[in-house]
Amino acid sequence: MNIITVATTPFAGQKPGTSGLRKKVKVFQQPGYLENFVQAIFDSLSGQQGKTLVLGGDGRYFNDTAIQIILRMAAAAGFGRVLVGCNGILSTPAASAVIRKQGAFGGIILSASHNPGGPDDDFGIKYNLENGGPANETFTDAVYRRTQEISAYRIVEAPDVDLTSLGETRIGSMQVCIINPVADYAELLESLFDFDRIAGLLARPEFRMRFDAMHAVNGPYAHAILEGRLGAPKGTVINGTPLPDFGGGHPDPNPVYAAELVSALADAQSGLSFGAASDGDGDRNMIVGRGFIVSPSDSLAVIAANYKLIPAYAKGLSGVARSMPTSCAVDRVAAEMGIPCYETPTGWKYFGTLLDAGKATLCGEESAGTGSNHVREKDGLWAVLYWLNILAVRDEPVEQIVREHWRRFGRNIYSRHDYEGIETAKAETLMDELRKKLPTLIGMECDGMRIEAADDFCYIDPVDGSRSDKQGIRILLENGSRVVFRLSGTGTEGATLRLYLERYEADASRHTIPTQESLAPLVALAEKVARIVPITGRKAPDVIS
Length: 545
Ligand code: G1P
Ligand code: ZN
Description:
The chain is α/β, with parallel strands linked by helices. It is built from 17 helices and 27 strands. Helix content is 33%, strand content 25%.
């Protein structure tokens, strides 16, 4: 095996964000850019000699080029075997499932999740540990430090590996196995849910479902599981072929980017009763009923409240966890069930210790991420199957299930406003000024509600004691209302300000008031205290979800 050592110099800005390193494809295409980062990952590991690495991605532009480079570098780093998804495909939850089932040392996932793909758009890379979950901050900090001092990377000279058919080959002494990307994952999902009952639901003539894979990674998974194993009619899955540019779309399953699905479900003529979608790398989900979108925070709460209907969870939940900006709807379910509810910073990596320690069974984020202890990533198709299992047992429309949930627990009226592409310096000024002002806000009134507390969220992991500061500014009002401010950690251009708004309403007669109307006083408060318009020059958010 001919290992060559290539001299290199550090690139600035290789700091992993909320979920790995994300940059424009053009940035990744600079000679040595990907190599430096991968070498920094390998240099931060120890004990990988002879072990197994899992490798795959969401199929976006540059996925295949990156895989060939990483394979040759993995051989140079001493890995014994790499399991690569056929055609370079592995959804994020499937990669997590493969790492766990095959007892791998870790995995590299190539994805920029819901960000657009193509030569002028985004690419990303992240490392997952042997528990199948995203590396923790201690590891990503070590990788970042290494990128700042790197002087060489190591790579084996070898021809490209054929990724298009299943089988085994070698690069030097390292084995390369091209695996079916769906098999382990589908088997795992089948072990959690009542597939016979879901198949029965899908066979009913009055129940029609549509799954929009958004030309992203979940196409092959949805075809195999929904239409294959569960027998849904062909055509249930739309946009099911992964494309390097996602067909020019924005593979984020929200009411803006999955508008076609939403309008199909709103159209009585379509005959559809259930719609779902997932994102670029298959870890996010959207659940839509007839003329009714389920907000991700509500979805998490409904999922938790219905655990008894699902074979894998019927024995009970040890606890639940949500990211801080996610609505407190699930807290109310946990309180009624008498189980703990953990509040973590934004990003799935913070759920890992809770899941590993058996403290939480279900986790979720307001950003369309839901999952459980079956893997260590959020899981789009898992959420869809969970809902199908609920529907198969309860035999009620989606909207009725959610409204009944609100009547029982009250409604956490919730919305997120995103201001995208703000100049980074302005966004930082806004956050700094607001942070300084926090103590003066206590006692202020907003729409008859008093501000009870205001802080910058700091998290101490209850399992490993690690501390994460500055995880979002919270203004907490009476009766569970909140305004939260955060800067996104996944963007590739400027800064995105996220404003999270929540108001609790116990009175069912007020559950039909339009969400934005009910949250308007909190928006006014946010604009005023954070001086959003004067500092950013933005009069309104770009995306409301
Ligand atoms: C966003 C979401 C966050 C999610 C992450 C990865 O991060 O807000 O909940 O974990 O994408 O999918 P952000 O851009 O806010 O840092
Ligand atoms: Zn994603």
